[in-house]
């Protein structure tokens, strides 16, 4: 191989590696404001429902509350113990809620309380039950001090072929006054106009 051919092949290989690296590190494009959106959430105490309604008020997205076949107990301590057992066992409760047309949505907001540093088991069931490949998934989590915990990484694992946007943690005691924070977050992630 002569010197000219060697240099050309080296430059071509280097350019390929650079372009390949560039393509892999570019952020995924944000969905357009015309994307069809769905808010899916599970709410035990009502806090996550409040945030879901605030997102709906700002985006006009469709909304769906996840409900289990067997409802969770209303007693706080009983729910805490049950949630711990379910999460430790990776148990996914059966859902009463069925979403027939999920393929028609581009953006899926996924809302959950933070239970033991992750999403509530009904949301794990939802994410495992539907093919969200190619969709944009947007987490929002209500909490009492633990913020997102490992919710985002668990959502990424369950919706591996989706684009996951930056989520929003909201303290449970602040949900009723969170509309401005919700709107600012939606603008920041490009889902409503500035």
* Unreliable stretches: 1-29
N→C terminal distance = 57 Å
- Based on the coordinates given, report the CATH architecture: 3-Layer(aba) Sandwich
Q: Give the full name of the CATH homologous superfamily.
A: Flavodoxin domain
CATH C-level class = Alpha Beta
The portion of residues forming beta strands comes to: 15-25%
Whole-number average pLDDT?
Answer: 86
Q: What is the H/E order? A: HEHEHEEHEHEEH
DSSP helix fraction: 25-40%
Helix tally equals 6
CATH topology: Rossmann fold
Number of domains: 1
| Total E-strand runs | 7
Q: Give the biggest beta sheet.
A: 7 strands, mixed
Rg, Å, rounded? 21 Å
User: What's the shape?
Assistant: globular
Q: Which structural class best describes the helix and strand composition?
A: alpha/beta
């Amino acid at each position: 191989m002569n010197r000219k051919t060697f240099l050309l092949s080296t430059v071509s290989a280097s350019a390929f590696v650079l372009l390949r690296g560039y393509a892999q590190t570019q952020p995924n494009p944000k969905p357009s404001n015309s994307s069809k959106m769905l808010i899916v959430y599970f709410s035990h105490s009502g806090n996550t429902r409040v945030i879901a309604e605030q997102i709906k008020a700002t985006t006009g997205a469709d909304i769906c509350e996840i409900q289990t076949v067997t409802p969770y107990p209303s007693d706080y301590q009983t729910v805490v113990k049950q949630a711990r057992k379910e999460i430790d066992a990776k148990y996914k409760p059966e859902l009463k809620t069925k979403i027939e047309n999920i393929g028609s949505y581009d953006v899926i907001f996924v809302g959950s309380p933070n239970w033991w540093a992750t999403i509530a088991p009904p949301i794990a069931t939802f994410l495992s039950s539907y093919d969200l490949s190619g969709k944009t998934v947007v987490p929002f989590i209500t909490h009492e001090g633990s913020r997102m915990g490992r919710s985002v990484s668990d959502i990424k694992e369950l919706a591996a072929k989706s684009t996951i946007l930056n989520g929003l943690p909201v303290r449970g005691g602040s949900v009723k006054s969170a509309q401005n924070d919700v709107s600012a977050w939606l603008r920041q992630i490009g889902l409503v106009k500035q």
